[in-house]
UniProtKB/TrEMBL annotation:
Reaction catalysis annotation: 1,2-dihydroxy-5-(methylsulfanyl)pent-1-en-3-one + O2 = 4-methylsulfanyl-2-oxobutanoate + formate + 2 H(+); 1,2-dihydroxy-5-(methylsulfanyl)pent-1-en-3-one + O2 = 3-(methylsulfanyl)propanoate + CO + formate + 2 H(+)
Annotated residues for binding of Ni(2+): H102, H104, E108, H146
Record-stated family: Belongs to the acireductone dioxygenase (ARD) family.
Organism: Streptomyces genisteinicus
Record protein name field: Acireductone dioxygenase
InterPro entries per record: ARD, ARD_bac, RmlC-like_jellyroll, RmlC_Cupin_sf
Cofactor(s) required for function per UniProt: Fe(2+); Ni(2+)
Amino acid sequence: MTLLQIMPDDAPDTVLLRTRDEDAIAQALRERSVSFSRWPRRAEVTPQTSSEELLDAYRAEVDELCADQGLRLVDVARLHPEEGAQWQERAAKARSTFLDEHRHAEDEVRFFAHGTGCFYLHLDDRVYAVVCEAGDLLSVPAGTRHWFDMGPVPDFCAIRFFEKEDGWVGDFTQEPIAEGFPRLDALLREG
Ligand SMILES: [Fe+2]
């Protein structure tokens, strides 16, 4: 289930709010101009589901969102657990990519069709950890400081939306803030 945990940016052990209530999560994020909503589940995603099949299943929602927000490019980012050291190496590399604080020139818009991933949004003096699950659509506004954790055993499939080809490029803040906050697995362990 989707989870929101809010912490002061200088006190990761202090939990100001922790909720799994969908409406409360959407409301708390809306107050910070972050849009969060849910789409109906249109497809059961397995490692065998092709990205084309997935995009076809969500075609109506995808087209509407693109038209509404001027998004031109859509792709699928995914990682499904596999056996072996090679996969582990690939997963660790993928996980590290956006594990440090950064921002983007355009909105980071993601729909989770399968699995789990956590966005940490650094909003003023707070960190909003948003654990996204299948069905969640999150839009991180351009310029927002944030980082992303796909966990020690990445298992997710997300539709990504971009305005430009290089919309995914991160501008890293070089701040070590992310290291002090609970990672995805720790957040979920807390109950
Ligand atoms: Fe990002």
